[in-house]
Specification:
264 residues, mainly alpha, 2 domains, two-stranded antiparallel ribbon, 10 helices, elongated
Amino acid sequence: MRTEHINVNPTPFIPATRFVINENVSRISAPIAISGVKIRQDEDGRYFLNDLEKAAKADGVTKDIRPNEWLSLQATCEIEGFLITENPGFKPIAAKAGRYGGTYVTRELIYSYAMWISPAFHLHVIRTFDSLIAGQMEAAEGRQSRERARLESFAMTDAVKYTRLSAGKELKPFHFSNEFDLINRVVLGGSSKQYRVAHGLAANYPIRDTLTPCQIKAVEHMQRLNASLIDVGIDFDQRKAKLHQVFLLRHQRALIAETLRIES
């Protein structure tokens, strides 16, 4: 018999946090801002040195920090030489002519310039880049988790299919959609339709692409557990209760902490 209006959580539906990731993690390409100044990049990923000078002044540095002074240092030339030795086909320092011209340098040289400016600004720059790299690594891990969740969803649909067919029961599309909505209600607090409406998504937009890493981890776990429960013949209401219990025990605290971090 078709299951309608599955009610897993007694609390009102609260839209889960939507998470949009940057797909390019081959190099740091997301916008970087230091002290409110956006640090531009050229087509090869080098950073605009003049923007870093502006950021340092916005950070409270008052001394003369013109890039040309730092570029003339022996230490700067030595770092440039090491980088050229490591990658002979790439220029670590590139001068661009024209209206929007200036000097662009690699991340290693950005660190060197920041250290020359001041220890405090050096730490500020390092921590900014470290935070960005950590975010991109988290995004990459999220993509891998989404792919695992997608692959493991087949185990759940297979469990539904073979359990019903082996019992001689009719198999309809809603038997599959009910199971996915069960997972969504447990993890996200509402059905896929409710989630799309809450976040302004098109009716056919894949909601998995908007979930946070912790949400994806919870979805992956709940799908795997649900498939196992279906395989051993646990009925729908019992599975619903067990999934909710395990979710509260294993995932709710992490999801709350993640939401607070994202929204802070």
